[in-house]
Amino acid sequence: MLVCMASNQQTRPAIGELAKDSVTGHIGVVMGEIGGRVQMRSVRGGREWDALPSNVVALSAREVLSARLAERNGNSQVPL
Questions:
Q1: CA 78 – CA 68 distance, rounded (Å)
Q2: Fewer Cβ neighbours under 10 Å: the N or C end of the chain?
Q3: Is 38:53 a contact under the CB 8 Å cutoff?
Q4: What is the DSSP annotation of 50-77?
């Protein structure tokens, strides 16, 4: 589910969805937003990191499938 915003804003992933931090290229789960930054956590768990909202982008269906498959297989080639 994507959050719909005003027409002058981009659509961003909602809490609990997979997204990509376009600065680092890492894929993670959107955990929330605090202090104007989006908190993300690797699909495999671990420590959260902060990203600017403008750098958090929704994944394509193919990227979601690839990330979920990599998580299930324990594949370290996909930056999660």
A1: 10
A2: N
A3: yes
A4: EE-GGGEEEPPHHHHHHHHHHHHHT-SS
The per-residue pLDDT for range 9-60, each reduced to its tens digit, is 557 799 999 999 999 999 999 999 999 999 999 988 899 999 999 999 999 9
What single DSSP character describes residue 14?
P
Bridge partners of 49, per DSSP, are: 40
Q: Are 44 and 80 in contact (CB under 8 A)?
A: yes
Tokens of 79: 């930056």
Measured distance CA(2)–CA(73) in Å, rounded: 27
The answer to whether the pTM exceeds 0.85 is no
Residue indicated by tokens 């193919």: 62
**Coil/strand/helix, residue 37:** strand
Alpha-carbon gap, residue 36 to 33, rounded angstroms: 6
